[in-house]
Amino acid sequence: MPFDSRIPAGPIDKKWTERKAHMKLVNPANKRKYTVIVVGTGLAGGAAAATMGELGYNVLNFCFQDSPRRAHSIAAQGGINAAKDYQNDGDSVYRLFYDTIKGGDFRAREANVYRLAEVSANIIDQCAAQGVPFGREYGGYLGNRSFGGAQVSRTFYARGQTGQQLLLGAYQSLQNQVAAGTVKQFPRTEMLDLVLIDGRARGIVTRDLVSGEIKSYVADAVVLATGGYVNVFYLSTNAKGSNGTAIWRAHRKGAYFANPCYTQIHPTCIPQSGDYQSKLTLMSESLRNDGRVWVPKNKGDHRPPDQIPEGERDYYLERVYPSFGNLAPRDVSSRQAKYACDEGRGVGPGGFGVYLDFADPIKRLGKNVIAERYGNLFEMYERITGENPYQVPMRIYPAPHYSMGGLWVDYDLMSSIPGMFVGGEANFSDHGANRLGASALMQGLGDGYFVLPLTVGDYLASGGIAKADTSHAAFKDAEREAKGRLDKLLAAKGKRSVDSYWKELGKIMWNNCGMARSKETLTEALEQIPVLREDYLKNVKVVGGPSELNIELEKANRVADFFELAELLCYDALQRNESCGGHFRVEYQTADGEAQRNDAEYAFVSAWEWKGDGATPELHKEPLVFENIQLATRSYK
Amino acid sequence: MSDMKLTLDIWRQKDASDPGRFVRYQVTANEHMSFLEMLDVLNQDLIIKGEDPVAFDNDCREGICGMCGFVINGSPHGPVHGGTVCQLHMRVFKDGDNLRLEPWRAKAFPVIRDLVVNRAALDRIIQAGGFITARTGSAPDANSILVPKTNADLSMEAAACIGCGACVAVCPNASAALFTSAKVAHLGFLPQGQPERHTRVLKMAEQTAIEGFGHCTLMGECAEVCPGHVPLEVIPRMNRDYFKASIIVRDEKASAG
């Protein structure tokens, strides 16, 4: 299947304007005759569903949580970027575009990223109008903070709860539309498959998580905004329910999967404390605005931090990256933490931790200022660890956090399946091989408020969508198949729990395809994963039945898909013989341990095509053309 | 790391039609686990024995999504107030403790299974008016709307509500006043929220009654247990808005003849 990114011609700063000017439109009175399914209610899905409802489309909106307000966007802490230049520090659309391309290690599509930078300012306007209580200066104007990978202050925030407030803004608009009758919401409902008729996406098969009923919904277009897949590592900062099933099922139906190996390991998370650990908690990157990262200079120095004199500490980020210091980007900071711990200089139980120390800023600014900036984060840290970060340095360690990879989409955010669009973290579009802090919220809302409502409309207005309903054989087949998968999991009646397999898969992925990857580790993982999956399908134990609230069954089905996704992730990591952003192949590094890209051979998007169970997926390449930014070695020194 | 043996009396209820009962379990935990990780350990044992695991809602496990929540020994989210049960750690308990776990109890929150309840009533209260109508695309430059820092801070304080329902669960009247007034205050403190201020409070208050939540008698237990630290003062603020709105709307109707 050939694929076309459909990037509009013309100069980069005119492409989106041009595209919008020539979109086909649906007459206002006809919009209600079109049904659009939106799966997911986070920033991308919630914003898209609400906005398409406002436009007059008939929207069906699904989420597995008990309310749309609980989508995992809610957990984002630090902030949202926008090229407002309210600080008069030299910011511009171009600079945000440049920082994002560079931050992504030159592996993102220029046109999409430029559009994102362009709409960023509208996002802040929209959110402020909705009543998002952004942090303000005394004059009543909006405040900003700094974030990693940028030298301007362009991050808008609502305490340490920015994701929560932005999501509630979208959620409230969504509820407004529910009341208006344009959006129908389906909470506690999980998508199990995508349905195609005549090669177009025409609906989904779902499971009602309370009654267990398998049911189909038909539409004229489908939007997936179902988030990322780093729970493939088991331990991550994602919510327990975050999963890859919707995008994986769409991939199996023909949607290309782009850059699956680009996963982000976030540098500042609370270290694991035991085998029972169920998730890892992020400590916002904004803490690095003031906190200083260090480890002891000497190996095996187990003294308490306050007894290690200044001269025997290594503030390694400030030492290695003097111009960005503690605000070096995530991939770079995580790798340096790993190096320090691998050298035996890690702190805390097991030596998998580094200090994030606030003693200096508290001395300089006073405890009150620090409390105002980070109070809720300090409180959260103390709840979890029992240690008071005002008195002892935080201990942090990197953890899987975000997937830059996702379903392949064209400029209009349409996948390789006509009529299926993908927004937010679920697509691959904007962050290349590494995402900068405070850019995920920007992308989710940009896609949801300002891109998808227009591009979906263009698709609908272009015509050619035949009438269909859920009695079509394609729906019945997909329902039968989905039910068959669940029945098989229930029938295995083996000896091991779903969690025990998921943890084992996660260990394989973390050890072989985590912060450092090599041909050997990836080859090993590709041998181990299919064996473990085989065993899983035969020997997993799922109690309870199909027609009830059955949390183990939900999980079992998601983990079955994670096994397949894990394999694709390793294939992708293995073929990419270079290091870039979050993808670090130990064979490809500079003398001082930095990522070594290979632009001559790997400046492309890997777009994988599913070839069937047991078959090797096929790699397609979308060349990345840089017309506005010169490829350069990324340096933060 | 010291192990602790706990006795748990957990509410088990297969579905809405099952009358439900407490069932006793023994579990060994350690002080570093979160409360939900302790339940994970119990559930892993139950699964291997072929018994149904205890169903409880949870998602982010960071205290922000609002999905988790049940009552431990009479207290929503457990004995440490001001956080969610996913943020509760076992170090606050001791070896030999006996804990009683039950779902939120309120007419408006029917039990779905075990510790899982249906909180869709809270969504419907927001649908009634908990929003600012601002169509995408119609917003002016964000800095053209000035918000005094004090208002922004007070608004944020109220907006921190996570919608978990603990306020309802702890209230002897099963009132949703703290939840509802938190949204009324969040939007009411902002200039953007003024045009719909009166209709908002009237419609939201009406919806809480339709859903079967009780009246507020300002006992204050809701604010005590609120994981979002929403202050009790939002309730009298809502009441003031409500009375003002009632009179304004009455006058408007009268003058319209």
- Number of H- or I-type helical stretches of chain B: 8
Run of helices and strands of chain B: EEHEEEEEHHHHHHH
CATH architectural category of the largest domain in chain B: Orthogonal Bundle
Question: What's the Cα radius of gyration of chain A?
Answer: 24 Å
Q: How many β-strand runs of chain A?
A: 19
User: How many distinct beta strands of chain B?
Assistant: 7
Main sheet of chain B? Answer: 5 strands, mixed
Q: Give the CATH H-level superfamily of the largest domain in chain B.
A: Alpha-helical ferredoxin
Beta-strand residue fraction of chain A:
5-15%
Helix content of chain A: 25-40%
The whole-angstrom Rg of chain B is: 21 Å
For the residues shown, what is the average pLDDT of chain A? Answer: 96
Helix content of chain B: 25-40%
Mean pLDDT of chain B: 97
Assembly type of the shown chains? heterodimer
Distance N terminus to C terminus of chain B?
74 Å
Largest interface, C-beta closer than 8 angstroms, per-chain residues: A-B, 79 and 80 residues
Tally of separate domains of chain A: 3
Class from helix and strand fractions of chain B: alpha+beta
Shape of chain A: globular
Walk me through this protein's architecture.
The complex is a heterodimer of chains A (637) and B (257). Chain A folds into three domains: 265 residues, FAD/NAD(P)-binding domain, CATH 3.50.50; 124 residues, Succinate dehydrogenase/fumarate reductase flavoprotein, catalytic domain (Flavocytochrome C3, Chain A, domain 1), CATH 3.90.700; 125 residues, Up-down Bundle (Methane Monooxygenase Hydroxylase, Chain G, domain 1), CATH 1.20.58. In chain A, strands 5-2-1-9-17 form a five-stranded parallel sheet. In chain A, strands 11-15-14-12-13 form a five-stranded antiparallel sheet. Chain A has a four-stranded antiparallel sheet with strand order 16-10-18-19. In chain A, helix 2 packs parallel to helix 5, helix 13 runs antiparallel to helix 14 and helix 13 packs parallel to helix 15. By secondary structure, chain A is an alpha+beta fold. Chain A is globular and about 75 Å long. Chain B is α+β, with helices and mostly antiparallel strands and 257 residues long. Chain B has two domains: 111 residues, Roll (Ubiquitin-like (UB roll)), CATH 3.10.20.30; 137 residues, Fumarate Reductase Iron-sulfur Protein, Chain B, domain 2, CATH 1.10.1060.10. Chain B has a five-stranded mixed sheet. A two-stranded antiparallel ribbon of chain B has the order 6-7. In chain B, strand 6 and strand 7 form a beta hairpin. In chain B, helix 5 packs antiparallel against helix 6, helix 5 crosses helix 8 and helix 6 crosses helix 8. Chain B starts with a strand and ends with a helix. The mean pLDDT of chain B is 97. The chains are: A alpha+beta (637), B alpha+beta (257). The interface between A and B is large, with 79 and 80 residues.
